[in-house]
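Final report, Chapter 2: Outcomes

The project's central promise was a pipeline that accepts a single protein chain and returns its three-dimensional structure in a standardized token representation, suitable for archiving and comparison. That pipeline is now operational. To close this chapter, we reproduce one record exactly as it appears in the project archive, with the input sequence first and the structure output second.
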Amino acid sequence: MLSKQSQKMPLFLQRFLQIVLFCAFAWACQVIAKDINSPLPGSVIGLGVLLALLSLKWVPEQTVSMGAAWLIGDLLLFFIPPVVAVIKYQALLEHFGLVLISSMLVASTIVLLGTAFTVDRLFKLERKHRLKVQLSQGSNQ
């Protein structure tokens, strides 16, 4: 998609273009989710579509790698609005703070465990695949 042209573009421009495309893609998925009254948020639909596109190799990994690396690297910036909200809704937190914090801890733990389980399974699957490829290459020689 951007492979030959991206080699001629400066790195900051490639990264900027990828981030703009991520934002446009996220916005489009949000609009689609709203239009079809999906119970899933647009961000989840977008992640699924992006995963499918990357898995099918319809979108090369290098097309999104720099923008994704920047977004992940600066992820902490996306937590500033919740900190401002904590200051703004201090009275609410005084009444329901313990319940909110405990539910966030439980939800975060579930997400972390689910991610760890998924990554572990994918690494095992990839290891099996590589072993099969090595064995098949060894038997061909």
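Archive annotation: Residues 90-140 form the longest helix (51 residues).
This record, like all others produced under the grant, will remain available to the consortium after the project formally closes.
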